[in-house]
């Protein structure tokens, strides 16, 4: 049962991530991965917030936290973005993106976990 909920939530999260990426792309002039920053920071905050109020190993936890928010956020895309920035010798973008992703997501998760 939980695996089906994770599949459903993960699929929906991935679709929402793609929609946000497409929407941001309509207005963005640069190649800086703003959409990935948005989904990871918002997702990290929601994971922190919901983990404080949801009981783990329940169907709702599987659907929303493991599934939807796991599908929304993306670690592998961040790694690929960083490799591409280094390959293009975009060292300032590499550093700012690293800080935004790792420190920004941690801080947002922490705030979410302790906001209630």
From TrEMBL:
How does the UniProt record describe the way this protein sits in the membrane?
Multi-pass membrane protein
Q: Name one GO biological process term.
A: cellular detoxification of fluoride
Tell me which InterPro entries the record gives.
FluC (IPR003691)
Please indicate if the UniProt record lists rRNA processing as a keyword.
no
Q: Does the keyword Transferase apply?
A: no
| Entry GO MF terms | fluoride channel activity; metal ion binding
| Reactions that this protein is recorded to catalyse | fluoride(in) = fluoride(out)
TM segment ranges: 34-55, 62-82, 94-115
- Where would you say this protein principally sits, based on its record? membrane
Describe how its activity is regulated: Na(+) is not transported, but it plays an essential structural role and its presence is essential for fluoride channel function.
Which Pfam families does this entry report, sorted A to Z? CRCB (PF02537)
Protein name per the record: Fluoride-specific ion channel FluC
UniProt source species = Staphylococcus rostri
